[in-house]
Amino acid sequence: MEQNKETSAEEIKVNVVSDEQVEEPITEEAVTEDSAMEVETTENAPEAESENASEGFFGKKKKKEKKDKKDEQIEALNAKNEELQDKYLRLQAEFVNFRNRTDKEKAASFDLGAKSVVEKMLPVIDNLERGLAVLTDEQKEDAFAQGIDKVYKQLMATLEGMNVKPMESVGKEFDPNLHNAVMHVEDENVGENIVVEEFQKGYTYHDTVVRHAMVKVAN
């Protein structure tokens, strides 16, 4: 028992010595160094905050500048788009006007050419009508006369298909836009200024006078 007590007392002493060796004494130099580090950290903190703040300010400013540049580019593109669209609409309107004008000119040129051809054909028609008018009933039965009559009717049908039509003048009131009065006659049975006889037929092409009718008018 005495040996166990002595052993325990020795273990306790060893533990006490080891604890004393672990705990080191705090000197004034250590306290001074810790205080200096705390002061340096405190002094550097505002500088770091100011740097972060400045970085945040300039970062926002750069973002704003980039945003402003994008807005300017969008506005420039929109203005360019409106300009191009206006040019396109103007060009389209000019093309439509040009096409309409060209169509009218083509139609006028065609009408003028057709009118010229019809004018040259009218004397032939006049001669056919005069030749058929002097035939007797017996001569009209001849095959040659019948052939001429058929050619004349075919020619008149062709002209009618081209909107070339003869005027109906006899019994109508004289119209200087349609008639050419070459004779006047006193006739109490007919009203004043009425066409009583037609010497040469007048023709129209699409309601345009190709040739005036040559007529006799009652005064």
Outline the fold blueprint.
Layout: H1 2-22, H2 28-133, H3 137-140, H4 143-161, E1 164-166, E2 179-185, E3 194-200, E4 203-205, E5 208-211, E6 213-218
Parallel strand pairs: 2-6
Antiparallel strand pairs: 1-4, 3-6, 4-5
Helix pairs in contact: 2-4
Q: How would you describe what is shown here?
A:
With 219 residues, the protein is α+β, with helices and mostly antiparallel strands. It has a domain at 165-219: Nucleotide Exchange Factor Grpe, Chain A, domain 2, CATH 2.30.22. It is 68% helix and 14% strand. The protein has helices at 2-22, 28-133, 137-140, 143-161; strands at residues 164-166, 179-185, 194-200, 203-205, 208-211, 213-218. The strands form two sheets. A three-stranded antiparallel beta sheet has the order 1-4-5. A three-stranded mixed beta sheet has the order 2-6-3, with no helix packed on it. The chain is elongated and about 110 Å long. Residues 1-32 and 38-43 have low confidence and may be disordered.
H/E element order: HHHHEEEEEE
> How far is it from the N-terminal to the C-terminal residue, by CA?
180 Å
Using the CA coordinates, give the radius of gyration: 61 Å
Percent range for helical residues? 55-70%
Mean pLDDT: 77
Compute the number of strand runs.
6
> Which residue ranges are poorly predicted, with pLDDT under 50 across at least 5 consecutive positions?
1-32, 38-43
General form: elongated
At the third CATH level, what is the topology name of one domain? Nucleotide Exchange Factor Grpe, Chain A, domain 2
Helix tally equals 4
Instruction: Please tell me the CATH architecture of one domain by its name.
Output: Roll
Structural class: alpha+beta
The largest β sheet comes out as: 3 strands, antiparallel
Can you list the strand order of the major beta sheet? 1-4-5
Strand portion = 5-15%
CATH homologous superfamily annotation of one domain: Head domain of nucleotide exchange factor GrpE
The CATH class of one domain is identified as Mainly Beta
